[in-house]
Write a structure and sequence with these properties.
The structure is a homodimer of 406-residue chains. By secondary structure, chain A is of the alpha/beta class. Chain A has 13 helices and 13 strands.
Chain lengths: 406, 406
């Protein structure tokens, strides 16, 4: 029986929890704007003080120029970062490669997964999956002549399924799926599974090796705080690496990249998941951001994430607001989605009061809880404002801006 | 008849040319290490003093966080940079989109090109093309069931050709192809053409609209000086945009990205060439680097490029060295390749003397001439050292390092 403490029922109780927080030191390493309560770390993580690009721009690029590929180890950056991210998703060394966008890595992973099951014709994605995950599934399905079907991760799998592609945590509702049981079911059906852990990595323990995942992808600008558009990554289980057949055949993934030969022979191991020249400056920012994980336990992160989301849900319950996110700890990621009749206007009003969450059409206010830098008192104060707004304000209809990015 | 001045025949003549150089002001805007002669700007361009990421990292990301997508116009960055690059390759506004690596953009462009000619079965690439160009041609050919054939850009085109994919300038020899005549020949054969202008953009005038190119891609870390791994770009001629069918279907390219729908409907115009969340920090470095083009004429750049390469070739001739690069101005990019029996050792010895070129297996010393920051005296002095080395030194065999990146 796990002990689940009740959420604080007063601001002073929240203060006490912050005082006892084993992750309090982590917040000190972030450059957070004073007074801001940032509940959008599930979209763009905050900046740690360990990130600076001065050296990268001025010394590495400006002074050392082309020699930096060796002298400043740019060449090994994608693999080096890959291993550090691997440690956060339960992947032994040599199975994660960093680079490119999540879209590109999804395309790589889904194509490669289908090629591992050439005799199968069905590719399954979640009909509630993040749009890009669905779009790329359709694109890969079209290129390879597959039947792309949309289900929920808990639905039974159809005949002839070759690839199952789900996200660990639902980007809207914050629901966390049982990745182990779903992986087992995919394998029992004879399929390979591709996990998108974008909304989980850095917020909760992920154990790709232990659950037997085949491939996985993730982003690094959410709970990994890698910076805007930080490079994504791909996981290829060691057992598949000798055969995995990736469609984006850039020269960095060649067995002999400097041989500059006319035909592509993939490198051994995870090196074949390199594509073209990586965005070195963005990658060095990510490498700086990952420094914080040297001292942080994912068990502490998960415990605090659950405490923070418990508190938000308890306050929403007390105010009669509808919570969409599951209540069971094993079914929850690190965000809370509330269904509000005027979710967009509430979100905008909160932003004007220095509390940043985000809106997901048509009616969800999505609050992300980054355990490394969010305090119990932040959650308490944000929910105070939210409840006050919903209960007392007549909210003006607000025009919607062009870009708010997941 | 064009007037082609003879190269300077003394160091003092080179000094006089530098004093009269209309691009002399441009060099002052680069942060070049003192004493270094950098002949590798065709691989990684030097840094301009207009590039700093302090504001991007500390204010835009650190302080403004997610609101920067609107508040600091991150959302429009790929298109904004695309238009600025478009102006350098003869593309009217709204035809170039910045993002991802050259490998990824080649994959997009070749797949889309083949889909514009669904009834044709042959894809042509240059057997001397940069390896990634050939590898991606093979990968796309395999996905779409095409017959990928390797020719030279001046060879006749075969029956049933649907896509022709060449580079404007040969990455090894520096040979420049007649892009207008080759485009015409492709169109006469009923094919669409995809130009890779990575080794031309920023070094010589490219006129994609005027020659009638269909699609094009390029990188931005060579003569555009965008920084290590700076994002690449894609050109889609306006006439193809209503139909062009790109395989990397990220949500940023959706007609209604914030509608977050389950199926992909591409945006109108060049916006459909967006993919996923772009590497904002690398992109802001590139945007800073492009500032210099506000004051620079590509005609001046081309004239100086020819003068610098003429000088290098004349010095090589005088020393009896073999130049692989064509002598005709219309057939030359902005680099000179010399065939040397110990090219690798010569390259390493030059680097030890503060002169950076690069080596291309098996026997080429490749010297790049970036007209914005290279002087006639730099070329004079570099050729002095090179000739001296070849004539007098017994070069020790040097171990080859892992990574020197094109």
């Amino acid at each position: 029986v796990s002990f689940e403490p009740r959420p604080p029922d007063s601001r002073s109780a929240a203060i006490a929890l912050d005082a006892a927080d084993p992750l309090a030191f982590a917040r000190e390493r972030f450059d957070l704007p004073p007074g801001l309560i940032y509940l959008d770390g599930n979209s763009l993580g905050a900046k740690t003080s360990s990130v600076s690009l001065d050296d990268a721009v001025n010394r590495q690029w400006g002074r050392d120029l082309i020699t930096s590929w060796n002298a400043n180890a740019w060449w090994t950056l994608p693999r080096r970062i890959g291993d550090r991210i691997g440690a956060l998703v339960g992947a032994a060394s040599g199975q994660v490669m960093c680079g490119d966008s999540t879209t590109v890595q999804l395309f790589q992973a889904l194509t490669a997964a289908a090629r591992l099951r050439p005799e199968r014709r069905v590719l399954i994605t979640d009909g509630a999956n993040f749009p890009t995950d669905q779009y790329v599934a359709d694109s890969v399905g079209r290129l390879l002549g597959l039947d792309v079907q949309r289900t929920s991760p808990i639905d039974p799998l159809p005949e002839d399924v070759g690839v199952v592609a789900f996200s660990t945590v639902d980007y809207r509702t914050g629901e966390r799926w049982n990745d182990e049981a779903i992986t087992d079911a995919a394998h029992e059906a004879g399929a390979v599974i591709v996990w998108d852990v974008s909304h989980a990595v850095g917020a909760l323990p992920v154990e790709l090796d232990r659950i037997g995942a085949d491939l996985a992808v993730g982003c690094s600008y959410k709970y990994l705080n890698g910076g805007p558009g930080a490079p994504a990554w791909i996981y290829v289980a060691a057992r598949h690496q000798p055969w995995v057949d990736l469609p984006l055949t850039g020269w960095h993934g060649h067995v002999d990249p400097f041989g500059l030969t006319s035909t592509y022979t993939p490198a051994a191991g995870i090196e074949r998941a390199r594509i073209g020249t990586p965005p070195v400056l963005s990658m060095l920012a990510l490498e700086g951001a990952l420094e914080i994980w040297r001292d942080v336990s994912l068990a502490d992160v998960r415990a605090k994430s659950l405490a923070l989301t418990d508190l938000a849900i308890a306050r929403a319950d007390a105010a009669g607001l509808e919570t969409v996110t599951p209540r069971g700890h094993d079914r929850r990621g690190s965000q809370v989605a509330l269904r509000l009749s005027r979710a967009y206007e509430v979100c905008q009003a909160l932003i004007r009061r220095g509390i940043i969450g985000d809106f997901r059409a048509p009616d969800l206010l999505r609050l992300g809880f980054a355990p490394l830098y969010l305090r119990h008192t932040d959650v308490w104060d944000a929910m105070d404002e939210l409840v006050h707004l919903v209960e007392t304000e007549s909210l003006a209809a607000a025009p919607r801006p062009e870009g708010v990015v997941t």
